[in-house]
Write a structure and sequence with these properties.
ABC2_TM; Transport permease protein; ABC-type transporter activity; mainly alpha; 241 residues; 0% strand; membrane; transmembrane helix
């Protein structure tokens, strides 16, 4: 835990010195909120759309975190950390913790601004939704850093993200309910774990805790985070052995 904290502080310090990172990270979902959200306003769907934007922020925020590791690999900074007594797992988890903190701050800011447009949720419901977002961030951040560690170059890393993150976002039902499309597309979307997480977040922000999606989404995101962290920590241990 001490090593995780040290790595977290090391990676968090530049963000604290330049908080515009958090602000600019919310620009894209805020544009979706302002420019796309009003198209759905007639059906009173802010309660449906805003949780989808939280999923979108998790996908595009933490999934691209690995880009920050590649310069450290190239410059030898990661190699210098490797020869210290710091835990190899902490080299991953400290970075992931930083990304989760930033993600939660951005999601909280987005949901707060969404109230201007008509989004409503209790503080307890918002906190629980942020917990889902945080666990999802752990999973995606772990995968992102692990892929960056293995690929080591931006030209190899970027196409992998481009070919996976966008389909995952579209199939999670962020923009439109998937059951409005062809049946085969809906079936494919159910294979996407983030569609279940999106359903869970929508349920909790609306206080619908009796919905089965709350349990299903919670179990899926926790299991997914556990598997991704396991893969990531094992990869960091092998590479840095």
């Amino acid at each position: 835990m001490r090593d995780i904290w040290l790595v977290f502080i090391r990676t968090m310090r530049p963000t604290l010195h330049n908080p515009s990172v958090i602000v600019f990270g919310i620009v894209q979902p805020l544009l979706w909120l302002v420019l796309f959200g009003p198209l759905l306003e007639s059906s009173g769907s802010w309660q449906w759309f805003v949780p989808g934007l939280v999923i979108q922020m998790g996908l595009f925020g933490t999934a691209y975190a690995g880009f920050g590791l590649i310069p450290e690999i190239r410059s030898g900074a990661l190699e210098r950390l490797r020869v210290t007594p710091v835990s190899r797992a902490a080299l991953l988890l400290g970075r992931v913790l930083r990304d989760v903190v930033v993600l939660v701050a951005q999601c909280a800011l987005l949901m707060g601004l969404s109230t201007i447009f008509g989004f409503r949720a209790s503080v307890a419901d918002v906190v629980l939704a942020l917990v889902y977002a945080a666990v999802m961030g752990v999973a995606l951040g772990s995968v992102s850093y692990t892929l960056a560690l293995k690929l080591k170059q931006e030209y190899a890393f970027a196409p992998v993200l481009a070919s996976t993150v966008m389909p995952l976002m579209l199939l999670s039902g962020v923009l439109q309910p998937m059951d409005r499309g062809p049946h085969w597309l809906y079936v494919v979307s159910r294979i996407n774990p983030f569609s279940h997480v999106a359903d869970a977040v929508r349920a909790v922000v609306n206080g619908d805790f009796a919905s089965s999606s709350v349990i299903v989404g919670g179990v899926i995101v926790v299991v997914l985070a556990g598997l991704c962290v396991l893969w990531g920590t094992n990869s960091f241990r092998r590479v840095n052995a």
